[in-house]
Amino acid sequence: MKHHQIMIVPYNSDYAEQTVEMWRNSKEQAIGQKEMHSFDSHIYFINHILPVQFQIDLAIMEESVVGIIAYNETEISQLYIHKDYQGIGLGQMLLNKVKAQSGGRLTLNTFEVNKNAQLFYEKNGFKIIGKGNENEENLPDIQYEWEVE
């Protein structure tokens, strides 16, 4: 696939529907279960709930949303890449930006069923610090932490 210009931009609600559609498809593929929340409540979440605690950035390619990351100085809340654009470095690009602006330490949770995510985070220096299932999906998850060298 030839490389198109990828832009990382702050989230803007003009992109809400595209972003939520991409997020839901990516997540369903990653965990093998349907999203439990309605499309509308997911839109509400990204526009009103998520931004209270997290900065949200989008990866945009040819006017299309191909990735999302939600983060603050200490935590990554969400990271999803469009299922047709995985494995080309988008997640890496988003993660690098977040690492650079972090306080030198980041934690995140990922689903135990999502092996691709675990390989990605471990390759990027994240270490497992806990396991549990504090999530609505009621799936086992893994807590990771990264610290700057």
UniProtKB/TrEMBL annotation:
CDD domains: NAT_SF (cd04301). The keyword Transferase applies. Signal peptide: none annotated. Gene3D superfamilies: 3.40.630.30. The keyword Transferase applies. Keywords: Transferase. It comes from the Bacteria. GO terms for molecular function: acyltransferase activity, transferring groups other than amino-acyl groups. InterPro entries: Acyl_CoA_acyltransferase (IPR016181), GNAT_dom (IPR000182), MshD_Acetyltransferase (IPR050276). Residues 6-149 form the N-acetyltransferase domain. PANTHER family: L-AMINO ACID N-ACETYLTRANSFERASE. This is GNAT family N-acetyltransferase. It comes from Oceanobacillus arenosus. The lineage of its organism: Bacteria, Bacillati, Bacillota, Bacilli, Bacillales.
